[in-house]
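Colleagues,

Please find the record for the two-part complex below.
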Amino acid sequence: MNNKKLLIVGTMAFDEIITPNIASGKILGGAATYIGMAAAYSKAEVAIVSVVGNDFPDKYMACLRDRNIDLSGVEQQSEGVTFYWKGKYHKNMNKRDTLETQLNVLANFNPKVPHHFKDAQTVILGNLDPNVQQQVLDQLAPNPNRIVLLDTMNFWMDIQLNKLLAVIKQVDIITINDEEAIQLSGKNNLVQAAAAIHAMGPAYVIIKKGEHGALLFHKEGPFYAPALPLEEVIDPTGAGDSFAGGLSGYLATQTNSTVTEIKEGILLGTAAASICVSGLGTKALQDTNTEGFYRQLKKLEQLRSVK
Amino acid sequence: MNNKKLLIVGTMAFDEIITPNIASGKILGGAATYIGMAAAYSKAEVAIVSVVGNDFPDKYMACLRDRNIDLSGVEQQSEGVTFYWKGKYHKNMNKRDTLETQLNVLANFNPKVPHHFKDAQTVILGNLDPNVQQQVLDQLAPNPNRIVLLDTMNFWMDIQLNKLLAVIKQVDIITINDEEAIQLSGKNNLVQAAAAIHAMGPAYVIIKKGEHGALLFHKEGPFYAPALPLEEVIDPTGAGDSFAGGLSGYLATQTNSTVTEIKEGILLGTAAASICVSGLGTKALQDTNTEGFYRQLKKLEQLRSVK
């Protein structure tokens, strides 16, 4: 059974972002938001499972609904306020410090997968508590063609490692950045780290290296997708989520997810990430239409092409 | 007039290398040595212009001569000893400290280009004093098809910037690492840095990013060549020189040096660099035959290939 459904679980948030040049104030953020917006460039049917508070503006919901994203799995709690994250980037923007995290409604979040997305062919577990990721997996109906992707970060390795490992065991594709791959594996070399993570379960290990691109490790050998060189990075927030969104949105539209589709998906994810970082928060993703997205993909092909 | 001659000017040296796992003792090193060995994988006619002292062993000369490298431009001074460099790598091997540099015979080196290489179609000015690089350029016979490559480093920017800029103005291709591109250009972004360096003269600006590959910037847009992911790096010494050697050796064998040949050459340079770092000093280059070199190039093609 093939369908084009992409189920996303992840945070929806207020972000407050400080770069060397900009202080954003409270803006729309969250892993599921970025993943959804990036996945919306595909022809997948996209749904988000998340939670927001009573302070979450309708216009933010509309931003996602306008992209045909199904929000029936987004719980709006009448009591409690939305997850809030504040971060500050260093001068070179490859490093950032978290200044504040308020879990708020996320603290007691029990995800509910909408009935009509329980058979989703493609599922992406965005970066959040692995217990919530597991609850989503537990609600799915069987689908032998299903591909499950996982994105995570060091925070969950620090405080929920065993639960995270249990989730990792059940996924097909993991996306993780280079430092986190080293932390998770205990290896000091990416080839060795990928092999160790592969042994934890995922057939495909994708290591995100920011401006240096992404490396896919799988049994047939590695694949490398470069990042587009950009004259200016406005705000790196959400780049990894956008990458995962572009990738998972593409996979949801494919009949098969062999290594070739996964490589193609990585290129689409790279294009989405390059759009994301060229604006503050979700602005560039909001301002770039499908045509603009494919222009970015074309630039990436030229970057890779010898002829 | 086309010929397959590659003229290399650069250091020949004793290196002493300390990695987290190895202390090499005094071994064969120097930019021209690495460039020559890497270029020898091509079918170019290779010659080195350099200087060594009375302590330079015949077996080291034989290492190069065995690869059909013309050493008639290598002056062996009967008084004085060979250039010596001692460096220590940090734990992650992307950083190193120079512990000692003894210029010795390099201090008063007047390069002499062998008569039969004055018409070389391809010339590479390896990393050394820009005054010496200029002296080599001054001795060349005209060749309208000539391609001149330059490799340099921060040391010469610090102490000979004006002379270096004068040489840069005369070359077609510059290879430089990311930090040095930022230093040379005064820009904090590689796209902007490449544009600034392009304006200094070279039509092609190649920025070496070590384990993250290499970026070519030219008027038709950027090209990216990834580095091969390696399970273990034994010794990064000479990787940049080997890259320049693989590239320049390939260009010397081509009738034209359009952007396509330069991109192809970058891939060959990448293959040579990946061999270089898999052994201590020049050992892996010495131990790897042409067949092994093309196996490495094949791996690189697979790394880049979607299908």
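The CA atoms of residues 134 and 167 of chain A lie 6 Å apart.

Comments are welcome before we finalize the supplementary table.
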